[in-house]
Design goal:
The complex is a heterotrimer of chains A (323), B (279) and C (333). Chain A contains 10 helices and 12 strands. Chain A is α/β, with parallel strands linked by helices and 323 residues long. In chain A, helix 3 runs parallel beside helix 5 and helix 4 crosses helix 5. The model of chain A has no long low-confidence stretch (mean pLDDT 85). Chain B is elongated, with a radius of gyration of 22 Å. The chains are: A alpha/beta (323), B mainly alpha (279), C alpha/beta (333).
Chain lengths: 323, 279, 333
């Protein structure tokens, strides 16, 4: 992919959190994101998957500016936004929005919906009141909600509608890129499909680029063109979605895909093999972080950390034995 | 609001306070002897309650009932100004300290701790004594000793609200700290502040009366309720009405504010927590 | 000896709340055989957790239960003496694995303390009315506990007994919960969304374990879940609920091959899959305070007709052990 088309580029991003012991002294670091590099093209949907502790939520929040990266650079539309706080990078970040897992919770319960929707415009623009009102109405219609909702409070509408309002709020400032953090988590399956369809419609209508972070592999497979698999702060596999799903290269990806139940398909529990649990991110194994659970691990894996290298068909995998 | 009116004790509180306000505003009309605030009729001193003097007369022969009504004005004045000052100082301090969790907030809280460490009355006495007996000194003493209560309350509430998703979302949106504090945090904690302020009004009246009782309030012949009780001491137990009347007034008013505050707390809390929870 | 271990017959439960009466369960019937793993599947608000609680007898005080019976091995749980129920049934013959393994534990006591607390009252070796805890029984119980902890693949069981709940990971806690549910040697285990809060790789391990143990010990399992994939993995039969009503009960293969009622068909169509376009079920789950009449799915059902609004459909069979409650089933016998 050419550099020119990349709208968001992460170069060796690290986000570490200090851990304090009982005496308030720093006892170590939680390396939530530990050297992540990826480019996202304009208009693409990149899926990021992984289990708890892999760092996918942290990288989403780091891109949004809620956490500051400890090292590395985040280039958005050519500008390094890493060191900027949400307030400083306000103008640049206007075009890069973060959507919470439950967008409805991002609404102030004491504010009417119309006011919550107008707030981004007040913060980021100078447009006059009448124009603001028009813009609000337009976006509200785009997410499929009636105008009457403008005068209601969040608790007066259903959870699903709150979610749409939260989305509308993000779209108010006309972003080009949206980080979607677990957008369907906790949703009933029947509602999930509708929400996903809404995301796709909005993407088409507003020309959006998505960073789709989720632990639900089936959903990510449906939505993303490319997928990045994370484990303990690093990307272990990166490539076109269908390629990764049909022929995963990294042992972790293989185990992960093997673990996902497919209703009506093969049964996972018949012969699932992955033992153990993800190690503690504050105490990562040396070399390859996955070696403690990997069926193919050898001595080399403990001493040498495998880099993310590009294989023959374009997939990137971080394993000594992939290829 | 409807819920509040359904709560009987809160309703009683509301009535009492409404009565207080009416007395204060219309004292001139309601008092049978409005001139008794500063004139005296020695032949009529220390008369018991009668149809003419509802609560009897005091040592100067003035009608206690009339003096009480005018005293209501003073009571309200002191309570409202002192409490308002405390709120105006305490709430922003607590808000800023709670929003930013840094050395500066620690400093602000330590300062308020210093004030809280000393019993309010003692501190108020010390201040009033130094400055001399006058209304404005009473108000000053009360404001200075009272603001830390609000600061502490707002600090605790702000800190808990600070971590809510919608606050984080507003920050991520690029809202300035001032905007977040005033437009988002403050409305969320408003109910606690309102309840505390209502009860605080009652507390202020009590301390003001105590100061008046000790002679640190406005000088005679101002019909301050606390002072009236102090004056009555030498004539007890015969002229019981002399102490009973202002005492009863103070009791009723403070109780009124407390009842209203309690009722407000019940009315405001569940309404706000009834968020849109999906089944 | 009854063929069915558990038979829930025409049970309705309503909660009286500030906003009115919520009819959370409406004429629900369910049967579970010995050694069977039944999936109780449904989306939010369908009543599956309430049904689980009703069987356990753990409903809040504002709940009213009406109906024919809840037969457990011939015993009617609705009319049983509450003292007997607490002693013999709950926590003994019927045990519970909760959704959130963390809040089920007391954070102040060690794992061992909590296991022994459980065994003191619910050990299979305990005789009725025994109030003490003899040294001999303590020893056998300890062996029993350690064996089971090893069986659920918890590392180093002796050290595990000395740990506190917060020192364990989510997967370990759930294994522990399963072990504790099996210690009293129950006949029925009710598992409420046991893997919802877990990562997918851990989920696979736990489900595998649960099935193996159930089969080994001949224990019946009633598993509630909103995830059809989970039900597919280990259940023999499924019961699908919507808004407090049972829609369909079917053997697992038949269900996934050809769902027989509109709701279940639309539900399966909503599952994300590579080939089919995204399709959901428009509309919202109804509020149980003002539930739709008769068949509660009719406002959202493309096949709905007048009879669906006026009369509750009777139970009808559409295949071997395949029952539906619908006026317009998509599969007929």
């Amino acid at each position: 992919m050419s550099e020119a088309a990349a709208i968001l580029e992460l170069r060796d991003v690290h986000t570490h959190f200090p851990i304090y012991n009982a005496w308030g002294r720093r006892a170590g670091w939680l390396r939530a994101v530990d050297g992540l590099s990826v480019s996202i093209a304009r208009g693409e949907i990149l899926g990021i998957v992984g289990e708890s502790g892999c760092g996918k939520t942290t990288i989403g929040k780091t891109i949004a500016g809620i956490h500051k990266p400890t090292a590395g650079s985040i280039l958005f539309e050519g500008q390094d936004i890493g060191p900027l706080s949400p307030r400083e990078g306000r103008d640049t970040r206007k075009r890069l929005q973060y959507c919470y897992q439950d967008p409805g919770a991002s609404l102030d319960p004491h504010w009417r919906i119309g006011r919550s929707l107008a707030e981004p415009l007040l913060i980021h623009t100078d447009i006059p009141r009448s124009e603001r009102r028009d813009r609000v109405r337009e976006v509200l219609a785009a997410v499929g909600l009636p105008e009457g909702h403008l005068d209601l409070y969040p608790h007066e509408i259903s959870g699903g509608q709150q979610r749409r309002v939260g989305l509308a709020r993000i779209l108010m400032v006309q972003p080009s890129t949206v980080v979607l953090d677990e957008p369907t988590s906790g949703l009933d399956v029947s509602v999930q499909a509708i929400v996903l369809r809404l995301f796709l419609d909005l993407r088409e209508r507003f020309g959006l680029t998505y960073l789709f972070i989720s632990h639900d592999l089936a959903v990510v497979r449906l939505m993303s063109q490319r997928i990045a698999v994370m484990y303990l702060g690093k990307i272990v596999e990166l490539g076109a979605t269908e390629q990764v799903f049909s022929a995963p290269r990294h042992p972790y990806t293989r185990s992960l895909l093997a673990a996902v139940p497919i209703a009506g398909g093969r049964r996972v529990t018949r012969d699932f093999v992955l033992e153990g649990e993800p190690p503690d991110p504050t105490n990562k194994p040396s070399g390859c972080a996955f070696r403690t659970r990997c069926p193919c691990a050898e001595a080399r894996c403990a001493t040498e950390e495998p880099p993310l290298r590009t294989l023959a068909d374009g997939i990137q995998a971080a394993c000594h034995f992939a290829g | 609001m409807k819920r509040l009116l359904r709560d009987r004790s809160a309703l009683i509180g509301l009535i009492i306070i409404a009565a207080l306000v009416v007395c204060a505003v219309f004292a001139g009309v309601l008092a049978p002897f409005p001139e008794d605030v500063d004139t005296y009729h020695l032949p009529r001193r220390l008369l018991g309650p009668s149809a003419v003097n509802f609560f009897g007369t005091d040592r100067m022969g003035a009608d206690i009932f009339s003096r009480l009504l005018f005293g209501a004005r003073l009571t309200i004045l002191i309570a409202v100004i002192a409490t308002s000052a405390a709120v105006v100082i305490g709430v922003p301090v607590g808000l800023v300290a709670g929003y930013y969790n840094n050395r500066f907030s620690d400093l602000l809280m330590r300062v308020s701790d210093v004030f809280l460490a000393v019993p309010q009355i003692v501190l108020a006495i010390a201040i009033a004594q130094t400055l001399g007996p006058a209304i404005h000194n009473v108000i000053l003493a009360l404001s200075i000793t009272y603001w830390p209560f609000w600061a502490r309350l707002v600090y605790a509430e702000t800190r808990s609200v600070r971590n809510e998703v919608f606050i984080e979302a507003a920050v991520a949106l690029g809202a300035s700290p001032l905007r977040v504090m005033v437009l988002h945090v403050l409305p969320s904690i408003a109910s606690s502040v309102i309840v505390r302020t209502t009860i605080g009004l009652g507390g202020t009246i009590l301390v003001a009366a105590a100061l008046g009782f000790l002679g640190l309030g406005p000088p005679p012949p101002t019909p301050e309720w606390g002072r009236m009780i102090a004056e009555s001491r030498e004539f007890l137990p015969t002229a019981w009405w002399y102490a009973a009347a202002p005492g009863l007034a103070i009791l009723l008013v403070v109780m009124g504010f407390n009842l209203l505050g309690d009722g407000l707390r019940d009315a405001l809390d569940p309404r706000l927590s009834r968020g849109g929870d999906a089944p | 000896m009854h063929p069915d271990l558990l038979s829930v017959r025409n049970i309705s439960v309503s909660f009286s709340t500030e906003g009115g009466t919520a009819r959370v369960l409406d004429d629900v019937s369910l049967s579970l055989r010995r050694g069977e793993i039944m999936g109780l599947v449904g989306e939010s608000g369908c009543g599956k957790t309430t049904l689980a609680r009703t069987i356990l007898g753990a409903l809040p005080p504002n709940a009213r239960t009406t109906g024919t019976a809840i037969l457990f091995d011939g015993l009617d749980l609705l009319t049983i003496d509450p003292g007997d129920a607490a002693d013999e049934i709950r926590g003994r013959a019927i045990t519970f694995v909760p959704q959130d393994p963390f809040s089920a534990f007391n954070p102040l006591f060690t794992v061992g303390d909590q296991i022994f607390e459980l065994l003191r009252w619910k050990s299979p070796d305990r005789r009725k009315f025994e109030t003490g805890y003899s040294r001999a029984r303590r020893r056998t119980d300890r062996e029993r506990a350690l064996t089971l902890l090893r069986r659920v693949q918890l590392p180093d069981p002796e050290r595990m007994l000395r740990k506190y709940p917060h020192e364990l990971s989510g997967g370990q806690r759930q294994r522990l919960m399963i072990a504790m549910a099996l210690l009293p040697e129950p006949r029925l285990v009710i598992a409420d969304e046991p893997t919802t809060a877990l990562d997918v790789t851990i989920q696979a391990q736990i489900l595998m374990l649960l099935r193996q143990l159930a089969v080994e010990r001949g224990v019946s399992v009633l598993l509630t879940t909103h995830d059809l994939g989970t039900a597919w993995e280990i259940c023999d039969r499924v019961t699908v609920m919507y808004a407090g009503q049972v829609m369909e009960t079917a053997p697992i293969d038949a269900f996934f091959r050809a769902p027989a009622v509109p709701y279940t068909r639309l539900l399966l169509d909503s599952l994300p899959s590579g080939d089919a376009p995204l399709r959901g079920i428009p509309g919202d789950v109804p509020s149980l305070l003002a539930a739709p009449s008769a068949c509660r799915f009719h406002p959202r059902c493309p096949w709905a007709s007048d009879i669906c609004r006026s009369t509750r459909p009777p139970v009808s069979a559409c295949g071997p052990e395949h029952e539906v409650r619908c006026h317009h089933p998509l599969v007929t016998a």
